[in-house]
Amino acid sequence: MRRINPARFRVAKRGTTREINSQIVLNLVRTHQPISRADLARRMGVSRASITLLVNDLIGRKLVFEGSTGRAERGRRPTFLHIDAARRTVAAADIRATDTFLMLTDIVGRPISAVVSFPTVREPKALVATLAVRLHRLLADHGATTCEGLGVVVPGMVEQSTMRVLLAPTLGWKDVDIREPLAAATGLRVEVENSGRACALAQMWALGGSACLHGDLVFVSVSEGIGVGVVINGEVLRGRHNIAGEAGHVPLSLDGPRCSCGANGCWEAYISNRATLARYLGGSVHDHVQDAQARRFTVEDLIGRAREGDSKAMAAVLATARYLGLGLASVVNVFDPSCICIGGEIMLAWDLIEGAVRSALSERVLVAEAASTEIRPVLVGEHPRLQGAAALLSAPAFAAPVVA
Ligand SMILES: [Zn+2]
Q1: Tell me, what's the pLDDT at 190?
Q2: What is the mean pLDDT of residues 339-352?
């Protein structure tokens, strides 16, 4: 179960409720820290005595700590509770077609190391070996003695129980297990997830209290491919074959450009970074991938040229914006979410493209109001995919289960 909705919870009253109530306490401390026992009791609608039992247990397990005393209107000064996040490290890895990125976070997902990267070796065994070496070095550099585990996001479909990568077209992977070998090589607990889904979960988790939280959320990750994660009622949509929500491979046109999945005209083939670059560099998507990589001409460079007045660069960026909006219209018509988060280099140009995206969206959404669906640009600097990878380890510990 990956149900991560920190706001929507009910206190469990019967049966095996203690662990569930503990998780609710833990999550409330995470989102409202520092927080007093009295405030916790008020938020959960339970007695101070029950809170004391739950909190003492969490303190005993070193999950929650007592900190400074606060002010009270009258009577005893309350002791505030917090989570000592710094002692608990989580490793995050983002495997992409071109490069692999690594970062360490604390248990609540805040970065505690710089991001390191290395070229992705597509042969899984070699990639696992390189990743393990790099991770050990990163952990050693940070003097991290204990690590809770390693979260890995991949640009492909992942089977939920085994975490095997069923298909990752941009990596050329079909039914690949990297979890077992990574666990063996690092000695850590390893969780693997599709990048779009992990991003959606991390956003849901991080946006505690914002408007995005009070409904359903879709995350669209635009990079070499398109990853889409859909969260409905605090739960990620998976489907029978782990492909639900893969809007990147919904066709915009049946005879459009060739996609990494082998079909023609997928949304991905119109808005991926390589599609945007091909539009500027000319030729087909695939002709120029190697060339662009060799020259390291990126979407950031393209946006830079557009801002400097290069009209061809601006036209390429705006064409991507239009296709982005047209695809988003399908996403809105299918899921009608409260909020769409979009990550990827193209969002560095959000101020330039929002108009074109919104206008394409409004052309195709079924009711006019849906054109104003909240869109939250997630900038590259926020490292949404690494945040997603870290959340695979940290979020479940804090998830507030909905108790029926
Ligand atoms: Zn496709």
Answers
A1: 96
A2: 96
Please tell me whether residues 117 and 171 are part of one structural domain: yes
Residue 355 lies in a domain: yes
Tell me the pLDDT tens digit for each residue of 110-135: 899 999 999 999 999 999 999 999 99
Q: What is the pTM of this model?
A: 0.81
Shared domain check, 367 and 341: yes
Which among 351, 345, 258 is positioned nearest to 302, based on CA atoms?
345
Q: Please give the distance, rounded to the nearest whole angstrom, from the Cα atom of residue 9 to the centre of ligand 1.
A: 38
CATH number, position 260:
3.30.420.40
Give the Å distance between the CA of 197 and the centre of ligand 1.
17
Residue 254 region, left (φ>0) first, then alpha (ψ -120 to 50), else beta?
A: alpha
The CA 96 to ligand 1 mean position distance, Å, reads 16
Query: What is the tally of structural domains in the chain?
Result: 3
Distance 111 CA to ligand 1 centre (A): 33
> Whole domain around residue 291: which residue ranges?
211-380
Q: Are 29 and 82 in contact (CB under 8 A)?
A: yes
**Single-letter amino acid, residue 66:** E
